[in-house]
Design brief:
Blueprint: H1 5-25, H2 40-52, H3 63-77, H4 101-116, H5 131-143, H6 154-170
Helix pairs in contact: 1-3, 4-6
Amino acid sequence: MAYTSAQRRQHILELQKYLYSISLFNDAIPQITPDGIYSSETAAAVRAFQKEYGLPQTGSTDPATWNKIVNVYKSYLHSAPSAYHAFPSQAYTIRRGDRGQVVYIIQAMLDSIADSYDNMPHVKVCGDYDPETVNAIKEFQRTVGLPQSGVVDSGTWNMLVHSCEHINSMK
């Protein structure tokens, strides 16, 4: 059976997805958009990969290059989890009316703490720093000996993170 253009395109797309994923971990590999076309950008990414990993820099995906790309990709998949630093800076604060990803994380941590401690109120995880979240933060701050401002600064954030890590270590 002949190798069809659809199969070729699918294989190129797979290669591009691997290269894109590797580029998230290694800045030496340029990010490309997986589209199934072996363009000059794809060849440049392959060449950069070959240079980075000590292979002949041809820009073509020979078996040695393919195997190395797959192995590097899999090594990232099976490595230890990466830390996620969501709190932007020591001077940053989150307060009533704020919205977004960091608020979701704060609410998820508060809810996790509430699952383990009866004296902590549950909050809905909605991404809006609402009055319910303010009250839960104030209660958490009271519990850990912080001023009860209802504002999450780096000190409150660190206490939340370590409380959650402590809870997870007990499971």
